[in-house]
Input
Amino acid sequence: MKGDKKSIPGMKVLLTKLVPVFEIGVLALLFFSLIGSISRTKNVVLKIEKEKQQVEELKKEREKIIKDIEIAQSQDFVEKQLRDKLSMAKEGEIVVILPDAEEVKKFAPRIDEEEEILPEPNWKKWLNLFM
Output
């Protein structure tokens, strides 16, 4: 029984040394778990913000497309397309087709721009005379 009594205090000493180590280990595990959770939460928040921006861009694009469709379905747009692309006209109208800008330039009279040449100064004339 003497041996049993000695091992009990030894166990108490061993437990008193191991309990703080175990507590530190548990705290470290909890700390790293918390850091990981914070990091994942931050990444999710950033992803949500990015997706919100994309949704806003898509809403703007959708509104633009809706406006374009409304314009394309209007009578004025249809008439303009018929006139511009198909060269059609209403009854009583005359269609005038103008040539490209390059063709118009060929028919326009050329204006030769002459530079004004100033007479040579007198000092240069004298210099040329003696040299």
